[in-house]
Design a protein that fits this description.
The chain contains one helix and seven strands; from the N terminus they run ββαβββββ. The chain is mainly β. The chain starts with a strand and ends in an 11-residue tail after the last strand. 22% of the residues are buried. The chain binds FE2/S2 (inorganic) cluster. FE2/S2 (inorganic) cluster (FES) binds next to loops.
Length: 112
């Protein structure tokens, strides 16, 4: 199992951000995107994450902070020796909810 900690927040509700922890079978977690889809589909449908995405490095809608670094979820492979991850929304665009940000403002969808 891989332990996944996700920084969640819902500014519309005025609730303070919190960290939610999930356990994902390693067999379901080749990439960070796989983790997020597994969590949303199997463990917690309330997790805010984009679902209408290309899943293959074309749309640039899957930027997320992975252990403090800005990464594309669909292009970030989980190493065999990696047992835990911290996922947070990118901090350079306004937060909408959980891992979903407004890419039309801030740094946007560019990786640099
Ligand atoms: S899902 Fe489209 S670029 Fe990652």
């Amino acid at each position: 199992m891989i332990s996944v900690s996700i920084r969640r927040a819902d500014p519309a509700c005025g609730k303070e951000p919190w960290i939610e922890e999930y356990k994902v079978p390693r067999s379901r977690a080749r990439r960070v995107l796989d983790l997020l889809e597994y969590i949303q589909e199997e463990l917690d449908p309330s997790l805010g994450w984009r679902t209408h995405i290309c899943r293959d490095t074309c749309c640039s809608a899957c930027w997320v902070m992975v252990n403090g670094k800005r990464k594309m979820a669909c292009a970030t492979v989980i190493r065999d020796d990696q047992d835990s991850l911290l996922l947070e929304p990118v901090s350079d665009s306004p937060l909408i909810r959980d891992l979903v940000v407004d890419f039309s403002k801030g740094k946007g969808r560019s990786g640099s």
